[in-house]
Design a protein that fits this description.
Layout: E1 3-5, E2 12-14, E3 18-24, E4 30-32, E5 40-46, H1 49-57, H2 60-65, H3 72-80
Antiparallel strand pairs: 1-2, 3-4, 3-5
């Protein structure tokens, strides 16, 4: 079990308890909750609306993934989780 830090609240939690967003090495596309076969830079978020909104408001996802993140991703994350 490996622990990861939420980009929204900064809390350290188990990797299974977090949403994983990965920018793929091949092509640079963003993937939500990929299986372990997707390689690239990743950022983690708690499964709650506050953390998702905080991470977008403070631009933490873009900084962590070193790429621009479309706003549609925020809506998708809030609706899905």
């Amino acid at each position: 079990m490996t622990d990861r830090k939420c980009a929204g609240c900064g809390e350290i939690k188990n990797r299974e308890d977090l949403i994983k967003i990965t920018r793929q090495n091949s092509g640079g596309g963003l993937v939500i909750n990929p299986d372990s076969k997707v390689f690239g830079r990743s950022v983690y978020l708690c499964y709650n609306k506050t953390c998702i909104e905080n991470a977008f408001k403070k631009n933490r996802i873009s900084k962590a993934l070193k790429t621009s993140v479309p706003l549609e991703l925020k809506g998708k994350l809030i609706n899905e989780f």
